[in-house]
Specification:
Number of strands: 12
Number of helices: 5
Structural class: alpha+beta
């Protein structure tokens, strides 16, 4: 379980399509082998730890459903260790189970921040509501607007600096996780 509050920006040291090694000193200092860490919103298990670097295995299922396959040496990634009992719940409930991959469609300056538009798979949009929560690249965000092909978010300067979202460009792929509560409500209503 995560909150979508990115704790650190890590750097990909190596990635061979299966083993992903990331330099993230703050995250590495607080995790053990077997712990979960969200990498750009994807929950992976720590399988190696050496100083400030962490190793993770990404299986084909993960690569098929996320944008992790595009990572390369030097890529910057959002890191969040799993929530521990007693930790503050500042974002929203995030599972680290990416629902699909979206695409950045627009970026506009808005005051000191940015307004970003994303195209999203049609099957995910039924779970996206204005002023609801969504996770983009592991970052908990509030939906500012929804349309037939996607949604928009308004990003404050802190979010742009503390996450990788500030470096996104139109056409970039992003991991999306919709609010888990919407999925449970839908399932209960269909019974």
């Amino acid at each position: 379980m995560f909150t979508g509050l990115v704790q650190e920006i890590g750097i990909v040291v190596s990635y061979d399509g299966g083993r992903l090694t990331i330099d993230g000193p703050e995250t590495a200092a607080g995790v053990q082998l077997g712990d979960s860490v969200a990498i750009d919103g994807v929950c992976l298990t720590v399988v190696a730890r050496d100083g400030s670097t962490l190793g993770f295995d990404a299986v084909q299922e993960t690569l098929d459903r996320t944008a992790l396959g595009a990572l390369a040496q030097g890529s910057r990634v959002n890191l969040e260790p799993a929530l521990r009992a007693g930790d503050a719940l500042g974002g929203h409930y995030v599972q680290g189970h990416v629902d699909g991959v979206g695409t950045v469609r627009s970026i506009e300056l808005e005051g000191g921040g940015k307004r970003m538009g994303f195209d999203a798979p049609t099957e995910l949009l039924r779970y996206v509501v204005e002023k609801g929560s969504i996770t983009v690249q592991g970052t908990s965000l509030t939906v500012a607007a929804v349309d037939d092909t996607g949604f928009e978010v308004a990003l404050i300067p802190h979010t742009l600096e503390a996450t990788t979202l500030g470096a996104l460009q139109p056409g970039d792929s992003v991991n999306l996780e919709t609010d888990v509560l919407a999925k449970y409500v839908e399932k209960l209503l269909h019974r």
